Design the sequence.
């Protein structure tokens, strides 16, 4: 059944529940608006979209009025246009002389309307309203605000950050943050969704590394956010003159739907940081102590170790060198070590920041050229245990669904993840689902942002995950909530699970986990009886000595209840770095070649030896932790690191220093000066990297084998000046050759 | 969790809303801070600073303005000046137009002459708890002679259960909404009755806040049982099990009277699980408005009942279809509901309560036949003050247009006033003696609408502000902009407030053309 109506004399047929505004749009008629955005719930407050409906007492706001059968609508009659002009005049009489938006991106919707209606200042001017400069990234000008409520909906309904609202009443009403604080003093997380939504100069980006100009004067580079595994699509607006990013827009994609978080929207200025290395550096001085007093004092707890050290203190220990000299030195030294101590004394750290191509080339370099499988990256400290458990239990070491699938779930188990901080854009979808009725069960020893949106928050004792989930399974089995058909058809070893969880009675689990029996029962029954339940987890699950067991538990839980392979179900390890999935897939791990083909398998090894024309080590390599222990113990004598900073990522910095200080080895490639290392050169910043990533938002059937293709590709990154790309190839084009 | 209820409780406990308490509340209730701020800053009842021992409010609106309000305000303001224990405020109409110029001291109504004494001796200020409702008088609208007779129509309906017939009788009587809009009551009930089952609600709009209107105050104080009976009748007819009386916070005496009557009704079995043996449940409770004229707009009222800022909703859908918590909701005014028992008994809706204020000798509520000439109403109020002629009058409160004194023979009914290009509205008659500065009164009413605009939509939020400035500027050029502004506000505002905000001032410029050029500098 459809609705037929007439708009400006055109017969239009639309689905029931279509607004006049949308119906007109379908007929090719654009009705001006300021407060409406098709991505937001309509509120009908600016009234710019009014239309005449024959027979009605007054005009109707087309963005909120449904099309009714037989309606006769006039969208641009003389009277309508007259009213729109007056509304524009009223709004303009309150505006600052110059719109902060016209001065920057130049796309102030109100000023455009003022030009369209050729508005003159007939109405008296308004009272001045304050500016708010308390946010480091967003400029607020209340004078330019027209109270269209778009930022409010962006903050509260899209991002669910719940910061912006209206305060006051009538003419003095304005937007405010929390309890009417400055934006920078409020709980605002600077995601910038409000800026993206604002049609006027009220909320604008503050320039961070280059002046903000109109989009057409900048080069738009469509790419993917370099931060986390969510993989938000975005567009960098690049100032070609200074070769800097001026500002960022979120880009429509199935994953992020145009949303960004503070990292994606504002975290780009590091690429133009003065500490970024532009030339190779060769270490000339090896004092007994660390180069920076901050590191020296770290044991006295004056300052938390990690972070960027004082540049001026570090630089004297290095001298600049040419690319040829640096690469020759690295190649020569690494070869010497291989000659003297064997391939097993070398190791490489790649990075989850690398593209698939870089990761592939890097592991090939280490395996085929260095001759060792001692190659790893930060996944070891992150989701390696999840991958191990997933590979073992369902045959695929990746997510089985997308985070957006939560909208189809009636229950979502979110455990061991501070998702509002670490995957803020994914968290917006979790919060949205919670608002729409999905029950979030948050299990975490630590109260994090997402627990505020939980249906039940289970604050279990740290390290008691296995007991907790065994307890859940115990109750689910006792309540007859297991999916027996699924278990019979798709699983093996169920009886063993049954035996194991039998002893995890609610009372016992309650004692172990420090959680009430009632809560445990409630969440177990909710999960067990859900039509569709999804599980998300983070490093709170994986970063344990029994991390793999933790993951096995939640996988068993999902399998036992048949919560996999259907909409709204599945297993979803929330990945940390932007390409931690792709780096692992590409073989940047010691035990597997690309595509998780075991290095210990003769078939696999023969295949890769043929492809690469090299003899490969048949033993599994050392993991990142083992490599650094090896360095400390003198087993590892030379390392090549790409985009990885073990001083930040490894569990014990003092041990790391012991290991890396001595050998005088590492050839490093990173953005900024880390604390130590022999030869360093500039790494490529994420948004300078060409290549592909693989993210957690994958569209594929839950149990399909093999790796899906990369989801997003990049084109034409900003040009690099005086340094090589990391994959050219890995800074070792010279010297190191096969068989030498 | 209802933010308004939570804030009431917090303010009750602490005297005002402190940041730390709001943060704790947010944590506890999961109502975001911005929402608490949004609500707390919208309603005048909520305060973010500690209340001083003495709070004096003087009404600044039409009837009081016409009867010495500005002078009283100046005098009292100067008495308060420099005293840290006193807070002085000019307030929007508290519905005491018959006691103009109206004052509130610590929320208790006071005559302006009393204020000086209270300021000199704060201990003599009466407490809110001591407020007692007025002694009921005999009104023709009350069909019951004795206390025992009360709720007779409800008992009849509960027994007959002929709800369609009752609605037909209402429709046949021509009863219309007495809150101002005049929507046919029978039709409204029919609409809600026809909505498919599930929860439905009945709401009594007792948020009378329009300058010149105070009849509902008198009805609530003197005839609360009729309001309750009207609501119970409505509940049976439309199929509602819960109801609210939404009453403005300044109406403490009416609230007490209504609460007593509700308690009595529960005692009698009129309210509760089996309304007069009908086999149907109806529970009724009072919701005190935290303030603001806009809450009388029915969808703004619903927003407040749901604990949010009282900003009117876009319509359609109307509350009869999508109302409180998304359910069909019947909303009627106090007088409309109170009229129902008599209308069901007699089949006739020929009576009307008029609030008469301004330059008459005895301002007050007059119950009179619909269609009574204005002049007759004035006579019933003791004639004009000082024997002056009627210069102009507002027949239906702030949202109707002025008529000149020479139209004083107009019949005060829906149709006659519509033909005269004005409205019966809420029957809030404000009579202005000859010689008054009418443009100043027009300005006063425009300022009232500006002060009470919720700010949700552009035309009303900015338009009312600009209109006041334009009137203040005066002169042909500025005033000539008003009709164009009026068109945009009338056509594009979300609710009635913005739509009619310029009606009074434009009626003055229409009927008294000399004002159009007043103030013009050549």
Sequence:
């Amino acid at each position: 059944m459809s609705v037929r109506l007439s708009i400006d004399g055109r017969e239009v047929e639309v689905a029931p529940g279509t607004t006049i505004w949308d119906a007109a749009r379908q007929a090719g008629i654009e009705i001006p608006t300021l407060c409406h955005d098709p991505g937001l719930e309509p509120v009908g407050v600016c009234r710019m979209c009014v239309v005449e409906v024959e027979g009605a007492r007054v005009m109707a706001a087309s963005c909120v009025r449904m099309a009714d059968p037989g309606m006769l609508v006039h969208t641009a009659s003389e009277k309508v246009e007259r009213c729109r002009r007056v509304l524009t005049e009223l709004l303009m009489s309150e505006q600052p002389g110059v719109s902060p938006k016209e001065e920057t991106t130049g796309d102030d919707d109100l000023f455009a309307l003022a030009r369209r209606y050729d508005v003159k200042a007939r109405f008296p001017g308004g009272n001045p309203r304050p500016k708010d400069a308390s946010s480091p990234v967003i400029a607020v000008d209340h004078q330019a605000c027209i109270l269209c409520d778009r930022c409010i909906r962006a903050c509260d309904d899209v991002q669910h950050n719940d910061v912006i609202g209206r305060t006051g009443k009538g003419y003095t009403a304005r937007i405010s943050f929390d309890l009417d604080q400055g934006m920078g003093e409020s709980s605002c997380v600077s995601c910038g969704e409000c800026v993206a939504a604002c049609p006027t100069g009220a909320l604008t980006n503050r320039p961070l590394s280059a002046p903000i100009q109109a989009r057409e004067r900048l080069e738009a580079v469509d790419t993917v956010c370099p931060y986390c595994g969510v993989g938000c699509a975005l567009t960098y607006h690049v100032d070609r003159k200074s070769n800097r990013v001026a500002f960022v827009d979120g880009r429509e994609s199935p994953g992020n739907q145009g949303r960004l978080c503070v990292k994606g929207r504002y975290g780009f200025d590091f690429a133009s940081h003065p500490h970024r290395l532009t030339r190779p550096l060769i270490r000339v001085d090896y004092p007994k102590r660390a180069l920076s007093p901050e590191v020296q004092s770290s044991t006295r707890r004056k300052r938390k170790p990690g972070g960027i050290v004082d540049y001026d203190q570090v630089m004297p220990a290095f001298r600049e060198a040419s690319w040829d000299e640096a690469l020759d030195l690295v190649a020569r030294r690494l070869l010497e070590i291989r000659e003297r101590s064997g391939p097993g004394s070398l190791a490489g750290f790649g990075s989850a920041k690398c593209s698939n191509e870089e990761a592939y080339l890097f592991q090939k370099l280490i395996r085929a050229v260095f001759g060792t499988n001692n190659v790893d990256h930060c996944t070891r400290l992150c989701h390696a245990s999840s991958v191990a458990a997933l590979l073992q239990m369902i045959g695929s070491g990746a997510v089985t669904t997308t985070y957006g699938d939560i909208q189809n779930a009636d229950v979502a188990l979110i455990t061991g993840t501070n998702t509002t901080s670490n995957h803020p854009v994914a968290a917006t979808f979790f919060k949205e689902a919670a608002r729409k009725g999905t029950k979030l069960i948050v299990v975490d020893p630590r109260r994090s942002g997402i627990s505020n949106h939980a249906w039940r928050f289970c604050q279990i004792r740290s390290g008691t995950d296995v007991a907790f989930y065994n307890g859940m399974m115990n109750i689910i089995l006792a309540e007859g909530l297991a999916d027996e058909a699924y278990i019979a058809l798709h699983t093996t070893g169920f009886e063993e699970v049954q035996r194991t969880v039998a002893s995890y009675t609610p009372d016992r689990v309650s004692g172990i986990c420090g959680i009430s029996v009632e809560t445990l029962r409630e969440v177990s029954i909710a999960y067990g009886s859900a039509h569709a339940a999804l599980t998300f987890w983070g490093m709170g699950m994986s970063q344990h000595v029994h991390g793999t067991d933790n993951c096995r538990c939640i996988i068993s839980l999902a399998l036992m209840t048949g919560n996999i392979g259907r909409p709204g179900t599945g297993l979803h390890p929330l990945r940390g770095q932007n390409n931690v999935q792709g780096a692992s897939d590409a073989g940047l791990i010691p035990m597997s070649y690309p595509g998780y083909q075991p290095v210990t398998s003769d078939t696999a090894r023969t295949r890769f030896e043929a492809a690469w024309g090299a003899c490969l080590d048949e033993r599994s390599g050392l993991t990142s932790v083992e490599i650094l222990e090896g360095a400390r113990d003198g087993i590892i004598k030379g390392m090549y690191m790409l985009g990885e900073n073990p001083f930040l990522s490894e569990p014990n910095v003092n041990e790391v220093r012991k290991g890396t200080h001595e050998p005088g080895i590492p050839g490093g490639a990173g953005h900024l000066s880390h604390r130590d290392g022999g030869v360093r050169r500039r790494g490529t910043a994420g948004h300078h990297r060409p290549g592909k990533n693989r993210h957690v938002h994958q569209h594929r059937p839950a149990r399909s084998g093999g790796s899906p293709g990369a989801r997003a590709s990049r084109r034409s990154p900003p040009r690099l000046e005086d340094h090589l790309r990391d994959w050219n190839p890995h800074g070792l084009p010279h010297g190191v050759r096969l068989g030498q | 969790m209802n933010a308004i209820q939570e804030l009431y409780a917090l303010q009750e406990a602490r005297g005002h809303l402190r940041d730390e308490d709001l943060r704790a509340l947010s944590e506890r209730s999961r109502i975001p801070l911005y929402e608490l701020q949004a609500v707390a800053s919208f309603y005048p009842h909520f305060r973010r600073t500690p209340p001083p021992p003495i709070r004096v409010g003087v009404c600044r609106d039409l009837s009081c303005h016409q009867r010495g309000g500005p002078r009283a305000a100046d005098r009292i303001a100067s008495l308060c000046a420099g005293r840290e224990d006193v807070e002085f405020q000019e307030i929007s109409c508290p519905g005491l137009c018959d006691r103009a110029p109206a004052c509130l001291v610590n929320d208790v109504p006071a005559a302006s002459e009393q204020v000086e004494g209270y300021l000199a001796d704060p201990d003599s200020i009466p407490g809110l708890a001591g407020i007692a409702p007025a002694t009921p008088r005999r009104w023709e609208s009350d069909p019951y002679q004795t206390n025992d007779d009360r709720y007779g129509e409800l008992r009849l309906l509960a027994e007959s259960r002929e709800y369609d017939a009752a609605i037909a009788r209402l429709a046949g009587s021509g009863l219309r909404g007495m809150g101002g809009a005049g929507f046919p009551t029978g039709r409204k009930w029919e609409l809600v009755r026809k909505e498919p089952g599930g929860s439905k609600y009945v709401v009594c709009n007792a948020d009378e806040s329009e300058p010149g209107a105070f009849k509902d105050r008198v009805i609530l104080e003197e005839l609360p049982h009729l309001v309750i009976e009207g609501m119970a009748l409505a509940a049976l007819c439309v199929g509602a099990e819960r109801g609210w009386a939404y009453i403005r916070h300044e109406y403490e005496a009416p609230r007490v009277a209504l609460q007593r009557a509700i308690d009595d009704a529960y005692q009698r079995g009129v309210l509760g699980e089996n309304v007069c043996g009908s086999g149907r449940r109806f529970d009724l409770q009072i919701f005190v408005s935290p303030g603001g004229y806009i809450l009388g707009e029915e969808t703004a009222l619903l927003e407040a009942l749901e604990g949010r800022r009282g900003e009117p909703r876009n319509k359609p859908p109307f509350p009869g279809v999508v109302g409180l918590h998304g359910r069909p909701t019947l909303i009627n005014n106090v007088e409309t509901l109170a009229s129902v028992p008599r209308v069901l008994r007699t089949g006739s809706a020929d009576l009307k309560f008029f609030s008469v204020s301004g330059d008459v000798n005895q301002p007050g509520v007059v119950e009179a036949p619909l269609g009574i000439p204005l002049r007759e109403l004035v006579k019933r109020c003791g004639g004009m003050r000082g024997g002056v002629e009627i210069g102009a009058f507002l027949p239906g409160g702030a949202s109707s247009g002025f008529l000149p004194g020479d139209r004083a023979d107009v019949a005060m009914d829906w149709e006659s006033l519509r033909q005269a290009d004005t409205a019966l509205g809420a029957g809030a008659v404000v009579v202005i003696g000859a010689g008054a500065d009418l443009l100043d009164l027009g300005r006063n009413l425009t300022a009232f609408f500006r002060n009470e605009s919720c700010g949700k939509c552009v035309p009303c939020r900015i338009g009312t502000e600009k209109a006041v400035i334009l009137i203040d500027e005066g002169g042909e050029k500025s005033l000539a902009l008003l009709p164009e502004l009026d068109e945009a506000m009338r056509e594009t505002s979300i609710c009635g407030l913005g739509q009619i905000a310029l009606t009074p001032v434009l009626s003055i410029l229409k009927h008294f053309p000399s004002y159009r050029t007043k103030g013009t500098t050549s």
Remarks:
- Residues 670-677, 697-740 of chain A have pLDDT under 50 and may be disordered.
- DSSP finds 26 helices and 27 strands in chain A.
- The CA atoms of residues 242 and 299 of chain A lie 42 Å apart.
- Chain A touches chain B through 48 residues (CB under 8 Å).
